[in-house]
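R.M. (postdoc): so does anyone remember the format we settled on? I'll just put the structure tokens first.
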């Protein structure tokens, strides 16, 4: 693929793998996915937080190298998602009391926003501010500019996280030779990509069930009302299954093959056995009890966080993530919510994302966070591909000027004989010699790079 302009690169630092995706925005605003790459990231990221900077840098470097090869360009910068434990929303209220009736202006609103932005949180910093409604007397309004009030109350949702979350992301990118275009809030980008305007307006919860964490975002009246990251996910289910005295890899396979989030109370207990390693067997019912119990705990935590908005969530719950791909998950949610909320497991591509013909991205249903980050990107992230040593040598030979043609020699006389200085002048190397010398120089440069 030749160089194309306005290619956006998005990177997700997930607990199980580091994933990168490249896309090009179409004239209608949709995004066409051009390339995808991932690298396993075991013991590098925990609960969505970088745990080992060196290993994360190495994995990120390999992922971007794969994209370079697939795109035929050089990735210079990236958009990176921020998620994981410690990311949460905090409600803040700012009050302004006036002397008599005050005509509210943009300057007044900006002053209140600045006051909110100056709030200091222990071991956390504000990453994003989501304005809520303003209150004048007993009225709630979205835009109070032009109205009169003696007192104005502004409500804000501050999305905060530990400072080291973003600091470590930038360290890893810099060590990999990459510029960070922007660190984006992953849950917000995913919600913008997946939720319709009607769902946000009528009220819903977007639940991303990942390997180590479950993220909950609640929207009512088209505004984010609550955001939290629960430190529980699919890996906790796998860990529970290891109590059957199996390795984590086997436990993961058992979960995928036999696990279910919901078992009917009326279901017949057949006593069916499943095969384990070392010629052992176990009751399938016992395995399913383990899986169901952990999913009940995760869903109970989700329900706790959405309980204050349950009556306003007409569009119900939309579930995504790798851990959401388990049978009967919608029934498990319905049991916890009393069946009052519609539950939908997200499947398929977002309506404004297309995959290039012939491109394999694995399971596209697992890449919703990446799609959201990609759609949020704006600036071109690539440049010309760097040349290989062989190509550099080829260009050297091609660009080498031809030997000047010799002028016809005049017969030598005593006066025209060469002086000793001219006789000692070294001959210009031949073309073959120049190519050989260039080849030796390139090998030396590579050897020096390896020694550095």
């Amino acid at each position: 693929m030749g160089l194309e302009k306005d290619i956006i690169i998005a990177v997700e630092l997930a607990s199980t793998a580091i994933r990168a995706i490249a896309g090009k925005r179409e004239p209608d605003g949709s995004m066409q996915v051009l390339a995808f790459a991932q690298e396993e990231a075991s013991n590098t990221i925990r609960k969505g937080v970088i745990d080992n900077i060196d290993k994360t840098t190495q994995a990120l470097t390999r992922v971007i190298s794969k994209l370079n090869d697939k795109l035929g360009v050089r990735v210079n910068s990236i958009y990176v998602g921020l998620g994981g434990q410690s990311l949460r929303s905090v409600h803040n209220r700012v009050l302004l009391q006036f002397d008599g009736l005050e005509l509210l202006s943009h300057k007044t609103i900006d002053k209140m926003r600045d006051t909110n932005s100056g709030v200091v949180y222990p071991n956390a910093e504000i990453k994003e501010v989501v304005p809520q409604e303003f209150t004048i007397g007993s009225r709630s309004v979205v835009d109070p500019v032009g109205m009169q009030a003696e007192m104005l109350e502004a409500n804000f949702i501050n999305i905060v996280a530990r400072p080291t979350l973003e600091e470590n992301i930038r360290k890893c990118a810099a060590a990999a030779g990459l510029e960070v275009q922007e660190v984006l809030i992953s849950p917000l980008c995913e919600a913008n990509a997946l939720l319709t305007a009607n769902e946000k307006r009528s009220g819903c919860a977007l639940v991303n069930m990942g390997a180590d964490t479950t993220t909950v975002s609640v929207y009512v009246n088209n505004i984010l009302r609550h955001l939290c990251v629960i430190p529980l996910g699919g890996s906790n289910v796998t860990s529970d299954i290891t109590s059957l005295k199996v390795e984590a890899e086997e436990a993961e396979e058992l979960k995928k093959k036999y696990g279910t989030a919901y078992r009917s109370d009326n279901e017949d207990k057949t006593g069916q056995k499943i095969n384990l390693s070392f010629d052992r067997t176990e009751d399938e019912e016992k395995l399913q009890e383990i899986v169901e119990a952990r999913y009940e705990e995760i869903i109970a935590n989700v329900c706790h966080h959405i309980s204050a908005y349950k009556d306003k969530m007409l569009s119900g719950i939309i579930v995504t993530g790798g851990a959401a791909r388990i049978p009967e998950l919608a029934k498990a949610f319905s049991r916890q919510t009393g069946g009052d909320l519609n539950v939908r497991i997200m499947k398929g591509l977002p309506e404004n994302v297309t995959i290039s013909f012939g491109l394999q991205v694995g399971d596209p249903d697992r890449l919703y966070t990446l799609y959201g980050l990609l759609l949020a990107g704006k600036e071109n992230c690539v440049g010309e591909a760097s040349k290989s040593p062989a190509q550099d040598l080829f260009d050297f030979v091609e660009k080498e000027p031809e030997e000047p043609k010799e002028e016809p020699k005049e017969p030598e006389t005593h006066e025209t004989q060469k002086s000793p200085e001219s006789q000692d002048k070294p001959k210009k190397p031949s073309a073959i010699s120049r190519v050989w010398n260039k080849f030796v120089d390139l090998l030396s440069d590579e050897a020096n790079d390896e020694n550095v």
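R.M.: ...and that's the designed sequence above, right after the tokens. Also worth knowing: Confidence is low (pLDDT under 50) at residues 388-398. The two ends are 32 Å apart (CA to CA).
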